[in-house]
Amino acid sequence: MPPTRPRVALAVNPTSGRGHGRRQGGEVSARLLASGCEIVDAGGQSAAEALDRARSAVASGLDALVVVGGDGMVNLGVNAVAGTDVPLGVVAAGTGNDVATTLGLPVRNPAAAVSVVTAALAPGADPSTLRRIDAVRGTSGGDGAPRWFVGVLCGGFDAVVNERANAWSWPRGRMRYNLAIARELPVFRPLPYEIELDGETWRTEAVLVAVGNGTSYGGGMRITPDASLDDGLVDVLVAGPMSKAALVRVYPRVFDGSHVRHPGVTIRRARRVRLSTPGVVAYADGERFGRLPVELEVVPGALRVLVPPSTGGPGRAAVA
Question: Structure pTM?
Answer without folding.
Answer: 0.91
